[in-house]
Amino acid sequence: MYAILDVETTGLSPAGEKITEIAIVIHDGREVTDTFETLINPEKKIPYRIIQMTGITNQMVAGAPKFYEVAKKIVELTEGKTLVGHNVRFDYNFLRHEFMSLGYDFRRETLDTVKLGRKLIPGRRSYSLGKLCKDLGINNHARHRAAGDALATTRLLELLLSIEPNPENWKTNGVKSGRNRSLTEHLPKEPGVYYFFNNEGELIYVGKSINIRDRVLSHLNNNLHKRTVEMKEAIADVDYELTGNELIALLLESAEIKKHQPLYNRSQRRTFFNYGLYSFTDDNGYLNLKVTPIIDHLSPLYTYSSMQEGKDHLFNLTGKFNLCQKLCGLYDAQGACFQYQIRECDGACVGEELPEDYNLKVHLALENYHFGDDSFFVIGKGRNENEKSVVKIEHGKYCGFGFIDTAFMDSNLSLLHECIRAQQDNREVRQIINSHLKKYGGKENGLDILDF
């Protein structure tokens, strides 16, 4: 017995999002014996982009049952049955998280029609539900609605059952191995940037890794979210460029994404820097600084990989430019900050320092944080043992990167300038370089600084 499942949700991650609609079709291997579908009140707002995709609005779910009200029905319907879904892990993970919030450990055997489809009907241009059903003549008049997708998956399951009715022959271990092998067999296990292209030759994603082959394989085996599965299904070719080390990979990835704006880079949220530095002017006219998690609709002055990194930056600024820790969000007090009491703050926190004087120091601190007016090369590991990578910073600005033969390293400094591939300077690349030097700077980590 099978329980074909589809859910619609408020987002992609079951850890923070909720189910808005569920449909279950019960099938005995020959025909449909029961169905269940309902909207669910997620008890949170549905984002506009999700409303556009599914058509499920906040008004529609306002009077719908909450998940706990239908939980018993779901348990009873699926008891003793195999849960079937197209990329079933997505739907199953959401269901498990909903039950976990109720203190119930919901577990069922699962069957993924994506994997089974690859095994029984190989060579299709895509195994996404929409494209596969279109190729097979399966109608779905309610795409991105739970009932429509569940019924389409049911028809797909029936077709697969007609091809191979014996479940013993359904083992899908390694179903993807042939495709994965063809896409990855030429890839190196070295640092660099990789590129995903679709059937039309369009660049759809750019990524970086210290091990290109393993990272690409992780993409091809990722079934956690519908969006990642959608991208995976669209990959027709993979290319790469070696960089020799992670710093060059980060810089090249940033440049390529800005240049090409691939579809799946535009739609993803960058997670390398999750915290940002923001400024605002208080009622007394003083510029305040604060580190917080990234705010979607605001552009941060600088970004950080952790809250602690941001606070360390601010402590550095307050000491170097005599800023007020209270106005930088580092000291919570009604009156003066502690630094004022030991004469390391000029009194902006108590109105003794004029706003225009204090704000000038803030602007000076922000402009000179990264590299000041320094000029230097960052020398790192190259793409082979006879090569070094070179990153150029001139008068505090990022100029680009390149590679040079180690035989010419000491002969002529001008060759270091000539090997540089010019790149755009921006806050993100300065942040990448600064953070990387803090973590990995020094010859012991393969990086060296050469002033000029």
Just name the CATH architecture of the largest domain: 2-Layer Sandwich
> Order of strands side by side in the largest beta sheet?
3-2-1-4-5
The number of helical elements comes to: 17
Main sheet specs = 5 strands, mixed
Low-confidence stretches: 173-177
State the oligomer.
Answer: single chain
Shape: flat
The CATH class designation of the largest domain is Alpha Beta
Q: Structural class of the secondary elements?
A: alpha+beta
Strand runs, count? 16
Explain what this protein looks like in three dimensions.
The chain is built from 17 helices and 16 strands. By secondary structure, the protein is α+β, with helices and mostly antiparallel strands. Helices cover 37% and strands 22% of the residues. The chain has four domains: 2-169, 2-Layer Sandwich (Nucleotidyltransferase, domain 5), CATH 3.30.420; 177-267, 3-Layer(aba) Sandwich (GIY-YIG endonuclease), CATH 3.40.1440.10; 275-367, no CATH class; 376-451, no CATH class. The termini are far apart. It has helices at 48-54, 58-62, 67-78, 88-100, 113-120, 129-136, 146-163, 177-184, 212-220, 226-234, 246-260, 263-267, 307-321, 338-341, 355-367, 414-418, 427-440, and strands at 2-9, 19-27, 32-39, 82-85, 110-112, 192-197, 203-209, 237-242, 275-281, 287-293, 302-304, 376-381, 387-394, 397-405, 420-422, 448-451. Helix 4 links the parallel strand 4 and strand 5 (110-112). The chain has a five-stranded mixed beta sheet, with helices on both faces. The radius of gyration is 28 Å and the shape is flat.
